[in-house]
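thread from #wetlab-drylab

HS: before we spend reagent money on co-crystallization trials with pyridoxal-5'-phosphate, can we at least see a predicted complex? here's what I'd submit
DV: go for it
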Amino acid sequence: MYDVQKIRKDFPILSRKVYDKPLVYLDNAATTQKPRQVIQALVDYYEGYNANVHRGVHALSQEATERYEEARGKVARFIGAESPDEIIWTRNASESLNLVAYTWAQENIREGDEIVVTPYEHHSNLVPWQKVARDKGASLRILPMREEDNSLDMERVDEFITPRTKLLAVVHMSNGIGIINPVEELARRARAVGATVLIDATQSAPHLPVDVQGLDCDFLTLSGHKMLGPTGIGALYGRREILERMEPFLRGGEMVLEVWYDRATWNDLPMKFEAGTPNIADAIGFGAAIDYLEAVGMENVRDHEIALTAHALEAFKELEEEIDVFGPRDPERRGAIISFHSDIVHPHDLGTFLDRDGIAVRTGHHCTMPLMRELGVIATARASCYLYNTEEEIDALVDSVKRALRYFSDGAG
Amino acid sequence: MALGNLDEIYRDDVILDHRRNPRNAARLKDADIAADGVNPFCGDEIHLQMRLDDGGRVAEVGFQGEGCSINQATGSMLSEAIKGLTLPQVEALSAKFHEMMQGPEPPDEMLTALGDLGSLSKVRDFPVRIKCALLAWSTLEDGVAAGRG
Ligand SMILES: Cc1ncc(COP(=O)(O)O)c(C=O)c1O
């Protein structure tokens, strides 16, 4: 049985108050809260075995190296990678995406090639490709969206994924409106034309089982802080054959094998891509976050969030006249991210109102400005749930939104 | 942090009035100075146009925008406040406004001197919203700087 109250007890911050009201934290798409187990892993490292990795012969360094590499193994297993060597530590998903843009794409994208993305991309999976396209004389193609439910128009995919497609770079779960894209199908079509496939799983991997073999992708990105881990640590999965052929990204210590005055040779994977002292503590913390998620079970997390989504969509139905909720109605086709807009009140004014009720939501464009343009809005209010959120919290949100609509409906908003 | 009551900014008569009846909303054609601003954090937009008279004073203003009530009300107030001012005076007013929003607790005389704009000092109690009141001013400053060439 999924015991959400038991889970909540592991998250110290969830018992705090905001303006004397219980915190209702619904901004998980921006960053998630951390369980005691993750916080403790950081403390244990700094108090117990803080040392640099891969360098010392002494006990602390060995212990640190072991734990740090163990964390890499946990990430690899979590997403079904064949080997921990296919996991490169980065600062966050944005750095993972830039790593591919500055190395693989610079070496492989040529004039006339096409890079295919979706309208849902986070700026981090769009802006780096804009530069690649400009540098190389390649072009960006944007898959079309259906107006009815803001989902991809899969019937027109063949117009966009063609023999000219060199890279498919798509977001799995949209942080802007929560939709889950049919990435397996898109990857299959891209493979059929010989394209490389990158999946931005930053928002999906925290919330549902993700398997790089099933997705058949070449690259996949993660951000630790979006999945109960610390900030400052992310990962890039890359298929071994591809990583081995790629040039390094940053150069310096750790990533080299042998160095002469005029040249150097590269270390093996994954260190070839990891110059300098890494973020040891947070990598270990990320590993602890994965332990936590695996103990709960990703299928269970997903089921819990489907139930929350169904509950939220049902509750918002009552406000249909005043509020547009974006994305499909079917909870199976989306994550527990409810992005909505009302002509009665601007999202920021609504966000301020909710904040005073202790409810944390995000308002704005969610780093998806092109998507907002497609939807015909400048900003939305976004409530995003995680494994510790409850139906009561959704009810508190909806109740507060209702009161806000009354408060602003005299035109004050 | 002082906890602002929502009514302070959403039920204030002056702010409400500007929000409901934005001044100078028509887009100015043949403007001497035009500037567009976007708040990168939230996507809110401000568009300003100014026509100067022979003495270099702001004769006409156009203001349009997409955004929250604070953003919109500020734009409207600004469009009234800068009429008749020279560009250096516009810049001085902008500095004064920034001081009111971000400097030490503003004295009453300052608020009175700023007229309608003074009512926006209440946004100080909502620190994350201060940037909503500053967008119109930074857009204005960009326009003035560009206009000077
Ligand atoms: C889908 C998606 N991709 C990429 C990112 C970027 O993640 P980070 O800010 O951790 O680099 C985010 C963060 O919001 C995201 O939601």
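DV: The CA atoms of residues 36 and 105 of chain B lie 30 Å apart.
HS: ok that's useful, forwarding to the group
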